[in-house]
Amino acid sequence: MTTPIPVQTEQYAECVGASKRVRWDIDRDVIRGREFDTSHKFLPDSISGVDQLGFLSEDEALFLSQIQGRTYANIFGLVERFINCKVLELSKFHWTGDQIALEALVRFSDEELKHQELFRRIERMIASKMPPGYNFLPEPNAVAAAVLSKSTWAVLGVTLMIELFTQTHYLKSIQPDSQLSPLFKDVFLYHWKEESQHARIDELEWVRENARLSAEQRDQAVDDMIALVGAVDGIVCAQAAADVRYFLTVKVPNLSEQNRQRLHDRVLRAYRWQYILSGVEERRFQKVLSAVITGEQMRRIEVALAPLIPSADPADNLADVNQTNVINPNKALWEKGDFTAIAAFMRESGETLVESLRVKPPIRALDLGCGDGTTAVPLARLGAEVTGIDIARNLVAAGNKRAAEQGLRRLKFQEGDACNLEGIDDHTFDLTVSVFGAMFASKPYDVAREMVRVTKPGGRIVMGNWIPNDPSFVSQLLKISSLFTPPPPEGFISPMLWGVESHVIERFGQAGVPPEKISMAKDTYYFVSASKGPADFIGLFRRFYGPTMNAFEAAKQSGRAEEFHSELLGLAKAHNKSTNDGTLIPATFLRVTVSL
Which end of the chain is more exposed for a tag (fewer CB within 10 A), N or C? Predict the structure, then answer.
């Protein structure tokens, strides 16, 4: 017998109340007898990206903004067709049940029908003001049929993503821009008013649907969501190309080939951000998504999204909504495997290093790039109040589990990026430690600045960093791995430079620390296991250590995977000092101490 899934009646009731309060009429409230004024932009630059096209004249940029605005309105009319179908389908679960939830969904459907009519009207009105030749390619019913062939879980997830980005686009970009067409702004003002409760209902229904699924069904649903996002990207790519053709035909038919390509790339970047990535990066969406899927499923989604990022990088000022990348390559790298399997070999040296710090409570300590707590746990055992920060959510979860199992109430782990310790106040910690952690962050000068910022005057920063070209194990492992992988992208900064004294001095110098406050010495770390030998050790690197996993994938493509494995195994055996069948492999590192 299926267990009934509870209905959050109060939350549905709040949606009903909001629907009643904001109820509006297309003619009376939105259009009010007005026409579109084509002397104004329709979309702000922060959404359209037209300000990045310096080779366009002011008039040309204005027209491109209006084309994008026309497509923007049509896209919403398109997606609301399948959203309404799904809402009506979901209402049946409440027909003979919670009538407040049923009313919320019926109102949702009614409002979506009204929105579709609004966007049909807007298309006709804009078409009367613009030259002929514009073509909106996707057909709403065909798109709806394709979307609705996927699982309800996936459709609800994509719907929530869409409805959340409509909220943010309006609040952060459209509403504050006084240069936009007043009528266009009002269309999205009133759309925003009703979409806010729609997003709440989507979330409620998604959570209910998630509770109904088995683990296997949910795993398939994740694949369905990935497929839907891919289908959206197909629509986006085709429409971007169509809109660019229309723009060139009407406005600048003689644009150079180079600028045509730049134009197409910019429009595609804008559309991918508008209709996919700005929704995926919404914190509320990420919070709900993270709560209903596993780390492995999240990584599948991230891998699927990764190809879209170069064409939609928000760093180019496409939008000022949430300037963090959807996919942080460093985050994906460390979440790819399970570093806890490697960390099991590092516990003894972690404890030895912490003992050498001579911690005297009361003290507040930060372990940056903490993994699952190889140094954070022994620090907490000595009585320190410890915060562990790592970019990998799976390692944060593992660390909190270890802390709970060991009863370490003054130890907490949280997700974060060493390049930007957002939410951590200045001068918070007496001691900041990072042992083979922050050295892998992408922006070393930012890392140094952040470590100095969050550490108290009179406090210490202690880093453990691997040394480039050192003859010991880790340096050689990374060197061998580099021989089997493609060259790094342009601008890549090797994490091994944290093991070079001059670079350490320069980086902390930029953060305001004079050289005399920095001391460095070589030290030794040991990988230890009484029961697992070098073959087991290398096997774990192959299966669970992100950089080595990537190297093996590249080696496999070139048919050299077994050659790579043989070299690593030979390296581990050559460095193993164990006299039994276990592992005792030393590795030299640079120990850095900064006194503030």
Answer: N
Whole-angstrom distance, CA of residue 72 vs CA of residue 261: 22
Query: Distance between CA atoms of 358 and 45, rounded to whole angstroms?
Result: 55
Query: Which of left, alpha, beta for 396 (phi over 0: left; psi -120 to 50: alpha)?
Result: alpha
Question: Tokens 């002397």 belong to which residue?
Answer: 39
Cα 566 → chain centroid:
36
> In angstroms, rounded to a whole number, what is the distance separating the alpha carbons of residues 62 and 547?
46
Concatenating the DSSP letter of every residue in 445-472 gives: HHHHHHHHHHEEEEEEEEEEEE-TT-SS
% of the chain residues with pLDDT over 70: 94
Cis omega (within 30 of 0) on the bond before 362? yes
- 215's tokens: 């683990």
Strands (E), 94-145: none
Question: What is residue 592's predicted lDDT score, i.e. its pLDDT?
Answer: 97
Q: Each residue of 287-315: pLDDT tens digit?
A: 899 889 988 888 888 888 877 765 444 33
Give the residue carrying structure tokens 């399948």: 82
H/E element, 519: strand 518-529
Q: What is the pLDDT of residues 225-279, one digit of tens each?
A: 999 999 999 999 999 999 999 999 999 999 998 899 889 989 999 999 999 999 9
Q: Note the pTM of the prediction, 2 decimals.
A: 0.57
Note whether 457 and 591 are within 8 A (CB). Answer: no
- Helices 9-22 and 99-127 sit at what angle, rounded to 10 degrees? 40
CA gap 131, 177 in Å, rounded: 26
Helices 182-212 and 152-168, packing angle to 10 deg: 150
Question: Which pLDDT tens digit goes with each residue over 54-92?
Answer: 999 999 999 999 999 999 999 999 999 999 999 999 999
